[in-house]
Amino acid sequence: MISYAALTTSLAAQQQAKVSxxxxxxxxxxxxxxxxxxxxxxxxxxxxxxxxxxxxRPAPAPPPAAPRPVVQxxxxxxxxxxxxxxxxxxxxxxxxxxxxxxxxxxxxxxDQATAQGAQTLTQALHYVPGVTFDTYSSNTFFDAIKVRGFxxxxxxxxLRLPKDPGTQFAIPRIEPYGLExxxxxxxxxxxxxGQTEPGGLVNMVSKRxxxxxxxxxxxxxxxxxxxxxxxxxxxxxxxxxxxxxxxITGLARDSGTQYDYQQDNKLFIAPSLTYQPTPDxxxxxxxxxxxxxxxxxxxxxxxxxxxxxxxxxxxxxxRYIGEPNVDGYRLEQYGIGYxxxxxxxxxxxxxxxxxxxxxxxxxxxTRPEGLAGDLRTVSRSMNYVQADTRDFAIDNQLQADxxxxxxxxxxxAGIDYIDIKSQSDYRSTFISPINMFAPNYGAFVPSASSLxxxxxxDDTQKQTGIYLQDQIKFDRFTLTLTGRHDEASQESVSKGxxxxxxxxxxxxxxxxxxxxxxYLFDFGLAPYVSYSTSFNPALGTTLSGxxxxxxxxxxxxxxxxxxPPGSNLxxxxxxxxITQQNVLTADPSNVFFSVQTGEVEVKGxxxxxxxxxxxxxxxxxxxxxxDPRVTRSNDGNVGNFMVNVPREQASLWGVYTWYxxxxxxxxxxxxxxxxxxxxxxxxxxxxxxSYTLYDAALxxxxxxxxxxxxxxxxxxxxxxxxxxxxxxxCVINVNYCGMGQARTVLLALKYNWQQxxxxxxxxxxx
Length: 766
Description:
By secondary structure, this protein is mainly beta. Helix content is 5%, strand content 51%. The protein starts with a helix and ends in a 12-residue tail after the last strand.
């Protein structure tokens, strides 16, 4: 929450040093300049020699380091103090300054997510412009996110997480408390990541071991009978000169939700271990285990009574119209992998990221299927799903840093591979209706074993990609060239009634890329332009049995990033035009099949600001305007807006902290989020109104009360402070409308301890 804490400590130490005022002021100014200085390009030119070619030579080696060097500056996978990240690996797969990245990227730091009381991935991204949430209501047990109007694939530590049609709700959900950063890369990104939608992607960065001993413990309570405890601890194993460091993060929750008879319980544990035998080599073992066992499931309600008026009244935001004794959701998930880094010599370094993830899910969910003429009685279906997913992913990267004459190169060559296997069993039947204004539970519900499977299938998806990137610096220009070739295959074996029994296979190849150019001025301004492409395989076949071609996308973006010298503020703005081709639309000869004649286009503008306005005031704000249109279709909806994509969003969050005076130790936070209107159907007949929500927070650091209470803090967060009633989305038709999040108030008591005389150590990087 307080990004200036480190700076305050440094200044206090300087005041105590026995130096002259002039020397002290000079030292403070030098340290301040170093901490906020912008990256500069040092161009080394060889002396002219007759009849001699320009030789490829290595970049200057780093100065000789002690056996255990102190890490200088921020790393793209490491922690950030405050709200403003300077480095990121998501956009380039190399540790690159955000100002030198020719593409929009929003980095939500752990400090920001903690200050806002985020409990889910979607809550952590509430204040990121161009990002849409709650596509399937606010209480789903998986995170559905759109970026610039398109479904966004999710990555953990740069490796893709399974989220495809064959998974049938067996979708991993990553616990935010186990993360260091939440990064949203916007625009087509297949040039590095392979099959993705053209709107962008979300990459989550796990917490990693550190060589500084620390302990954090949090107890939390609040709305819906919530009880939650969490801890985070780490440090060296075997003393301060150890080559091993550990970290273990855990969370346990027992809670209800805004809906009657629905739970939000969870157990989560994430052990990790780093082995660093030399300053040039690091191996980090990463793992997590998560278990969810809840009554109730994602709740839809009819639109008449929520989205529209109903003469019988309004459906309460707590109303559950399922069957409490039957509905439930169980998920068991674990992941195990590693991140390996090794600097070979002055030019080359090698990285390898690997993960195996398993996800098993079992659910029973009641669904509304129509509203009777009395506008009270809802017909219902009972749905059983059993599914599991096993995912293996690996990414190998070789980086070379060298000069050719005046040009400084950072070349990245990589090969990645994913293998996703999933099984799903879906069964459904109608059950007796219910009065949604006076529910009477206890209907007879057939068991899953008594029903024939509707969907019974095994799916396999594989992708192998080879990519090459060169980040070329000349003076203050940076030219980024990225190219990739992918070969992807999918196989679906159906044993149920839909799709009909049989085997469907597809093999796709694609070449994608990106070209971007930016210029970094002395005063912190960095304008850029970029063009990038994407592809994504489409599962299924045409009426004739031919497999669909992959959807393809193109994106053009022009933007500017600005970080004023001497400040911790970062401003970004971008205008973009994204087009996706080969979109599925209805087959005119048979509406139960599709053809690929569709095209959609999203034009828009985004603005974002984050960081410290003053030492006391820290803010995050953003605005986005989208024009998401169907530009080609067989459905008669050309010119209409895309479904569930708000055209406007605006948000502003700020925290003010007192360090002196009678309020020293107190902090207050406030936020406002506006989401514009959207349409829930392709014909644009069902309109979801705009809504505005307010958030608030209070903080207190007990160290200002008594020195022996150092490390103890209290935090109070309120989401949707005024309990505004709204519909977040509708899917399929107005029988499936998802309510927005009701007011949620959470109180946390925290204890933090960190050994101050143990500097953080890490790999020497360029």
